[in-house]
Amino acid sequence: MAHVDKAEAAIVSGFVQSLQEPRTPYISPKRLSKVLGVQVANLAQLTGVHRNTLRNPSSERLQSRLREMVKVITAAATITGDIDKAIYWFRNEPIVDYDHKTAAELVAEGHSEAVLSYLRDLENGARG
Q: Where are the alpha helices (DSSP H) in 1-128?
């Protein structure tokens, strides 16, 4: 397992906490869309759910997809050391190994594990 220092853990923890739907155990679609710089309707596309589903933050399918996005962003943040850089990478940087699709596109297609594997390979290459 990769070593994560206290500063990285604090960055990730603060980011995840900032996404919490007030007084619930759920990720807020509104807060995540704001952090990603997308309209809420576009978040529906990124998560692969109907836009009306975003009105129900307790939807298990929605929460599962939001968790996948957060996992990928936080994994990228442990490599970049910065949430903003990780979000920029997630949304914009084409991944050559995956047909030049962005991490956001791959996660929207249900390939979050492939992106996490790619990030692990990057991290191992960078650290090893």
A: 6-18, 29-36, 40-47, 60-80, 83-92, 103-108, 112-127
